[in-house]
Amino acid sequence: MAEVAGKNKKRRPMALGDRLFDYANYTFLTLLMVVTLYPFLNTLAVSLNDANDSIKGGIYVWPREWTLDNYKYVLAEATIFHATMISVLRTVIGTVATVFCSAMVAYTISRQEFVLRKFVTVAFILTMYINGGLIPNFLLIRDLGLIDSFWVYIWPGLIGVFNLIIIRSFIEGLPESILESARIDGAGEYRNFFHIVLPLCTPVLATVALFTGVYQWNQWFDVFLYNSSNIDLSTLQYELQKILQNSNASMSAKSAGDAFASAGSQDANAVTPFSIRATMTIAASLPIIMVYPFLQKYFVKGMTVGGVKG
Prior knowledge:
Layout lengths: L1 H8 L6 H32 L3 H4 L14 H7 L4 H31 L6 H10 L7 H10 L17 H12 L3 H9 L4 H12 L1 H17 L2 H6 L9 H17 L3 H8 L9 H34 L4
Membrane topology: Multi-pass membrane protein
Family: Belongs to the binding-protein-dependent transport system permease family.
Keywords: Cell membrane, Membrane, Transmembrane, Transmembrane helix, Transport
């Protein structure tokens, strides 16, 4: 019996079709990984390569002439660290406020007993297709007294309709019996929302937080529109844009022949718009890349379950 049991424990050889499928699957996933990682690795290599040498091309995933001059040039700006702090503040405050307010509104319009739920939902959805335009928005922000104010980064985008629909769909997928049991025990709507709905909505809230955080971190156009005259409220993205514009202006002052001639010189401190753009991309995307692994396990679940109902 022991011999028979030992034979049964032996792994049966895979069929030829199964092995071919595994090989093809591994090959496809490997190629997909290379295609996905190559743009980032190439940008990182350019940012760490000598700017004049990068003009020659031929940089792939490994720098040809290592240097940190591109990062030194960007970090040498006096306002860059203060702007980074403002970007962090607007990202954290904006994300927390948007997720919380969107969750409250989503819970309200998900309740069957709310008689205006369809009207309010349609009113929100219409804002995704109809926009007042740049000038009316600017006049509204001015009349609200948000020009040269930190809160102009927070209040206008406090409720995101796309995020609202995702959270509402997730809440509608929760078992209604849980909330009914809580009501029988005497729980009100606030208790249901804070003690039952919010904990159960962790996956979708993490997904919305990722969307909102990336949006807040990457924004620079609202700084240009409303706070460009106030250097204390400038963000990292806006300062990086100004550095790139200054680099483009300096480069355009030279002729093409001078640019290629300088490529062969020994000026190690020279930077180009190409190298600055790569450095900006790495500097701006690094915080999001560091945060994403902690939210990844919630991201797929939140998008899948939140999209079950429309």
